[in-house]
């Protein structure tokens, strides 16, 4: 493979090496080879060129995980554009901010997706963001033209050139745009494939939002390794699992919420392996309970959960490996990736220096707070154990301060996950006039069990040695613990729901 020359060089090299090998399969049964992918991307690039996209153009796209969305990323790379992929949960406020701040001149969206009128939103954006042109697309309706309309190829991106602006999720503040180049993402994807033992014969689940930086990394990895990506536009615990089973998935990611769905499906057919070709369940993007690795390994097979840790600003800083000791796979996020250095600050924060750390925020005024003497501040708490594995214990902002004492939400969540009645759990801090914050556990109940009582919860936590100030004083039950498409619990939703009680 032509490594280090940018995404488009990988497209050309892979199409030459294995042209007829399958690259993309979606839940609708559509299939595309590597050669077909290059052709589709070139037709799309020619169509985009006709809309004025050229080297250096800034193009935003907020699209589902379609085959065409993946081809679009390659097409824009062929033209040398700067891409602003936006996850489809963003609405007017966030999209307006992303497009205006990045200086986007084009915004591609579906007409409608999951009940939201993206076409109407695009028209509103055109009225509110100077110079922005909205383009509504669908699987059969992307800008396309014959390949002869393609402009001459642009040179490979220079080292340090921005090719991607990836926005972090915002809750109360505006999303922050992290600038990345091709070279760093290329290197991270290759190291990730090595840790996960990805080969050309493998079939990797791409069932989380492709516009997420993790989705972009999967594109690099597929082109490097020659593996197949299995795509579904919306994860469904029944239809998506059936799709992955039919397609003989080998790497079933991509985080705790997905793994819980796979386990639930396997338990409905105890005598029939759900994923007989499974190598492992890659994880990341959200904390994992320590029990889930053993459950996945025992019930689904393969190496169990092999997880990594990183952020939009610094993707995949650490990664487990197939073949790592089970005790490390259960609790750690693996060892640092090549070139990554990790330190722990006096406050317990994990900080990093690494090739994949962003080039900087679009709003450069945010850079000073993001770094500590050149070390990127991740905002995650944790430690590096004596074997070099990184263990994440929580978030700086996910510490509940009760009567002046710090309570780790993740510590309480991990212990509650061990209770047989608990299918999923989130621990949140809620405002309290006496203690400052009170600890609230929000749980969903395991199928076939009665809901957990508050006395059962307290007894369970005391028996596991949890100190008294960390034991929740409030317990709430929900049908499903809310998570975003990347698998992270949307704790702000729970705080708003239960904060007044």
Radius of gyration: 23 Å
Give a count of the beta strands, DSSP E runs of length 2 or more. 25
**In CATH terms, what is the fold-level topology of the largest domain?**
Rossmann fold
The appropriate CATH architecture of the largest domain is 3-Layer(aba) Sandwich
Q: Give me the CATH superfamily of the largest domain.
A: ANL, N-terminal domain
The secondary structure category is: alpha/beta
Helix content: 25-40%
Strand content: 15-25%
CATH class of the largest domain: Alpha Beta
N-C termini distance: 58 Å
What characterizes the major β-sheet?
Answer: 5 strands, antiparallel
Would you write up a description of this structure?
- The chain has 501 residues and is of the alpha/beta class.
- The chain has three domains: 7-183, Rossmann fold, CATH 3.40.50; 235-395, ANL, N-terminal domain (Rossmann fold); 403-498, GMP Synthetase, Chain A, domain 3, CATH 3.30.300.
- It has helices at 7-17, 34-50, 67-79, 92-102, 118-128, 182-195, 213-225, 239-246, 256-267, 292-299, 326-331, 367-370, 409-417, 454-463, 491-498, and strands at 22-26, 31-33, 58-61, 82-85, 106-110, 133-137, 164-167, 177-180, 203-206, 228-231, 281-283, 305-309, 318-319, 335-336, 341-344, 349-353, 360-361, 371-372, 375-384, 390-395, 399-402, 405-408, 422-432, 436-445, 474-477.
- The strands form seven sheets. Strands 15, 16, 18, 19 and 20 form a five-stranded antiparallel sheet that branches. The chain has a four-stranded mixed sheet with strand order 2-1-10-9.
- α1 (7-17) runs antiparallel to α2 (34-50), α2 crosses α3 (67-79) and α9 packs parallel to α10.
- It is globular, with a radius of gyration of 23 Å.
- The N and C termini lie far apart (58 Å).
């Amino acid at each position: 493979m032509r490594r280090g020359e940018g995404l488009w060089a990988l497209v050309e090299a892979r199409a030459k090496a294995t042209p007829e090998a399958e690259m993309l399969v979606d839940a609708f049964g559509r299939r595309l080879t590597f050669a077909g992918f290059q052709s589709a991307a070139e037709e799309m690039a020619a169509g985009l060129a006709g809309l004025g996209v050229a080297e250096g153009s800034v193009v935003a796209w907020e699209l589902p995980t379609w085959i065409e969305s993946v081809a679009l990323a390659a097409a824009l790379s062929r033209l040398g554009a700067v891409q602003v992929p936006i996850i489809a949960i963003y609405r007017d406020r966030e999209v307006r901010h992303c497009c205006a701040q990045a200086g986007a001149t084009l915004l591609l969206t579906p007409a409608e997706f999951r009940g939201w009128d993206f076409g109407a939103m695009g028209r509103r954006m055109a009225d509110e963001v100077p110079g922005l042109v909205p383009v509504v697309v669908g699987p059969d309706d992307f800008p396309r033209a014959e390949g002869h309309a393609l402009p001459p190829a642009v040179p490979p991106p220079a080292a340090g050139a921005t090719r991607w602006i990836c926005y972090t999720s915002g809750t109360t503040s505006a999303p922050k745009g992290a600038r990345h180049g091709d070279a760093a993402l290329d290197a991270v994807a290759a190291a990730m494939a090595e840790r996960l033992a990805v080969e050309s014969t493998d079939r990797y689940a791409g069932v989380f939002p492709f516009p997420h930086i993790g989705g972009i990394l999967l594109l690099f990895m597929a082109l490097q390794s020659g593996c197949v990506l299995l795509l579904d536009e919306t994860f469904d615990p029944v239809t998506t699992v059936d799709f992955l089973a039919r397609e003989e998935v080998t790497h079933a990611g991509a985080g705790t919420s997905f793994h819980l769905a796979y386990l639930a499906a396997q338990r409905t057919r105890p005598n029939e392996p759900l994923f007989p070709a499974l190598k492992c369940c890659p994880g990341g993007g959200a904390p994992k309970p320590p029990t889930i690795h053993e459950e996945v390994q025992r019930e689904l097979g393969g190496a169990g959960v092999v997880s990594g840790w990183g952020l939009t600003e610094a993707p995949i800083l650490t990664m487990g490996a197939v073949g790592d000791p089970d005790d490390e796979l259960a609790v750690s996020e693996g060892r640092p990736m090549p070139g990554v250095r990790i330190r722990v600050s006096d406050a317990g924060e994990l900080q990093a220096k690494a090739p994949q750390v962003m080039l900087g925020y679009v709003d450069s005024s945010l850079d000073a707070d993001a770094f500590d003497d050149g070390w990127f501040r991740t905002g995650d708490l944790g430690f590096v154990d004596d074997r070099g594995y990184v263990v994440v214990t929580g978030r700086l902002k996910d510490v509940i301060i009760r009567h002046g004492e710090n309570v780790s939400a993740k510590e309480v969540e991990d212990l509650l996950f061990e209770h047989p009645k608990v299918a999923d759990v989130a621990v949140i801090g809620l405002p309290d006039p006496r203690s400052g914050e009170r600890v609230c556990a929000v749980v969903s109940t395991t199928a076939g069990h009665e809901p957990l009582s508050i006395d059962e919860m307290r007894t369970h936590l005391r028996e596991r040695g949890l100190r008294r100030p960390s034991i929740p004083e409030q317990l709430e039950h929900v049908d499903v613990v809310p998570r975003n498409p990347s698998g992270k619990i949307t704790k702000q939703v729970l705080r708003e729901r239960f904060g007044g009680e």
